[in-house]
Amino acid sequence: MLNDHLVVRYGELSLKGKNRRHFESQLFITVKRKLRQYDKLKIAKLFDRIVVELNGEPHEPIIKALQDIFGIHSISLALRAENDIEEIQKAALRALKEAMVEKGTFKVTGKRSLKSFPVNSMQLNQEVGGYLLKHTDGLTVDVHHPDVNVKVEVKDTGTYISCQTYEGAGGLPIGVGGKAMLMLSGGIDSPVAGYLTMKRGVRIEGVHFHSPPFTSERAKQKVVDLTQELTRYSGGKIKLHIVPFTTIQQTIKDKIPASYSMTIMRRVMLRITEKLAENNHAMAIANGENLGQVASQTMHSMYAINEVTNMPILRPVITMDKQEIMNISHKIGTYDISIRPYEDCCTIFLPSAPKTKPKRDKAIWFEKNIENLEELVEEAVQNVETIILEEGKTTEESFEDLF
Amino acid sequence: MIYFDNSATTKPYKEVLDTFITVSQKYFANPSSLHSKGGEAENLLTAARKSIAGLLDVDPSEIVFTSGGTEGNNIAIKGIAFQHQNRGKHVITTAVEHPSSYESFQYLETQGFDITYLPVDEAGLVSIEDLKKAIRPETILVSMLHVNNETGTIQPIKEIGEVVKEHKKIFFHVDNVQGIAKVPLPLKEWGIDLCTISAHKVHGLKGTGLLYVKNGVTLSALFTGGEQEHRKRAGTENVAGIASMAKALRLTMDAMRTKKEKLLEVKQTFFEGLKKIEGVTLNTPEKHSAPHIINFSVEGIKPEVLIHSLDKRDIYVSTRSACSSKQGGASRVLLEMGHGEKRASTAIRISTSYDNTVDEAKTTLNVLEEEISNIKKVMR
Q1: pLDDT digit string (tens) for A104-132?
Q2: What is the dihedral of CA A99, A102, A105, A107, to 10 degrees?
């Protein structure tokens, strides 16, 4: 009897000494959660890998789902055959056909861990390789650079055959690296920053500044949808905090010279995000800042803005070119949402000529014009609307019956 | 009533109509309007697009909503031809296409395009060798039916896709109006660039359909005037129709999983029964044919006469395709299959849905036998 399964290998985990057990169990929880809709699966944690027995479930969507999980180095599809040379040959042929189209090269790497099996490793290569050649057209053997390596491993529990290895997302399992507040504007960069932050095992919570009626419901929905997309990588849920920002933006427009309004706005956003971080037990702030793209993102600007907090600020895309960021954005599925044309709080009050080289002391000086700044910050924090987004569940539950 | 004309159109499911009514009443706003009602309609549209994309295993951005099969075929064929004509003006199709494609090709011919109509064999199948021979450096499009609307013949789309894939610059369009939710067609795996689908063949509403356009494929729009549907099809979206299509597709695809055997059983019943009736010749091939279309010719009897006499007994079937049934004369498709004038002008098509039963098939066979012998007596 054949029993197909997936072998899930860890990434950097093996390097992490004492923490290893913690890391592995975090990853195991994430894998189980991700695959819970497939009820026939049997998922087991072995010494250095996770084995997912398919029991008839289709492997393609499951591999796709696993590729979203950080901490996984690779996934291989493997077939199990009884320890019988004919069974092994048949299974190897099936595995090879799944892995290849028609033309190409392959080799067989046999390994006999079960020494009582009558066919040794060398003979395995010949017997299986010969069978494969005989039963396929257009395939040849290349032992040095094959397109497909058919691994055949004879163990006491059966023979395992695998030839397709899929790349995992790499990184560290979500949940092993603390938590950061991700500032989400709705643009292309911030979701990518969130993705990369999670890649280091860090959980995130989103923070978005909403200024109705100057920013629309659709701009908010865009951020909700972006966060929803990021739940694929978050191990389940992500909290999104929507900060009411209208009063503050109006006050800034009122009291701050136009050329510094953007700098001050960013300083206030950072203050609010820091407060939210404290309230939600996060130890860092993450954002999509990138050196030298726009006015707020020159080094001068960062120097003038960053001053308001002591909290570490993670800027995963700081050195990237726009194209690099866009490539990731496409890959993780946020690009199409990010380019929806709704104005966010950063662009709506944008002065015609923001300072690209604001001075820190001037920013501090101007900021004093807003006497009740602390109150305003506190009020915004108090009135935050928090939405919890969960993987696989859309916010538009009410539509489900319609389809 | 026994309804066996499901390839012409199907009866909409009640659930589909419910969705249409609910959405028409609750989400009537224009999705492009900026206010929150517009936002709700837009959200609904996005959710429907996602749901349909999930059913077809494609990306939501690859779906262009249309008014149905005819429009989908027109956009795909003319849109690709006009957009890429600078690269070449040669297009390959088959001799047995649906009129909506066939006439698009004839129109292209008047615009200076060169069209190759691949011949078919007795079963209605094109040959891979013919296709390979037809491809030239200036070929820009290969377009064909998946399931033939008259005979149910299934073209070897997988193999054709493999041939087309070897030529990076040729687009591959498949008209899957008859095949959807009846015969599997993995769009991504088989290298399909464009695919036409219509909702009213799967218990949805007339006036709703979609065209799959693979990401990266550019085409010239037939309708301009707005940014809807990724600029490929302007016009205010038919939100209620689209939502109801999502429902129709899901229900029919569910039925495909659970009732496939039943459909085959009905077809088998017809095949066996028809072979026993004198003067009847099957036109649908035994192999390579869809589970829901049974085409046959009755020697010496005008199909219209037979249809009207079945009509009186509350049984509804058709002569070849509804889109050309009013013209009379021989079936172009059957002639191309080499069946001769007599057989091609006496064809009847029975087309089933997942709701038809073996009993209905048996009743129909009995009535057919009776009516055929009655008509023959009169005509003698």
Answers
A1: 888 999 988 888 999 888 899 999 999 99
A2: 50
* Interface contact B25, partner A, CB < 8 A: no
In the A/B pair of chains, how many CB contacts fall below 8 A? Answer: 37
Predicted local confidence at residue B320, as pLDDT: 67
Higher pLDDT, A399 or A323: A323
Per-residue tokens: A268: 């206030």
CB within 8 A of A29, min separation 6: which ones?
A175, A235
Residue with tokens 């010239």: B220
Q: Full-prediction pTM beyond 0.90?
A: no
**What residues contact B324, with CB distance under 8 A and at least 6 apart?**
B99, B332
Q: Where are the alpha helices (DSSP H) in A135-257?
A: 189-199, 217-230, 246-255
Q: How far is CA B179 from CA A134, B172, B351, in A?
A: 36, 16, 12
Distance CA B258, CA B149 (A): 24
- Domains defined for chain B, CATH in brackets: 2-8+259-379 (3.90.1150.10), 14-251 (3.40.640.10)
Of A162, A132, A130, residue with least CA distance to A149: A162
CA distance B130 to B132: 5
CB B195 within 8 A of CB B212: yes
* Interchain pair A221, B47: CB under 8 A: no
What ipTM did this prediction achieve?
A: 0.73
User: Which among B42, B60, B247 has CB closest to A403?
Assistant: B247
DSSP A138: S
In chain B (380 residues long), the average pLDDT of successive 10-residue segments reads 96 97 96 91 93 95 96 97 96 96 96 97 96 96 97 96 94 98 95 97 97 96 90 94 97 94 96 95 95 94 92 91 61 93 93 96 96 86
Domains of chain A in sequence order? 5-170 (3.30.2130.30), 179-392 (3.40.50.620)
In the sheet with A237-244, reading across from the earlier edge strand, the strands are A313-314, A284-286, A179-183, A203-210, A237-244, A385-390
What are the tens digits of pLDDT across the range B264-310?
999 999 999 999 999 999 999 999 999 999 999 998 898 999 999 99
Whether B61 and chain A come into contact, CB under 8 Å, resolves to yes
Instruction: Find chain B residues with C-beta within 8 A of A402's C-beta.
Output: 19, 22-23, 44, 48, 243, 246-247
CB of B63 within 8 A of CB of B52? yes
Longest dimension (CA), chain B: 72
* Distance, C-alpha A275 to centroid of its chain: 26
Asked if A217's CB is within 8 angstroms of B43's CB, the reply is no
Measured distance CA(A195)–CA(A329) in Å, rounded = 9
Core vs surface per residue A50-76: b (16+ CB within 10 A) or e: bebbbeebebeebbebbebbbbbbbbb
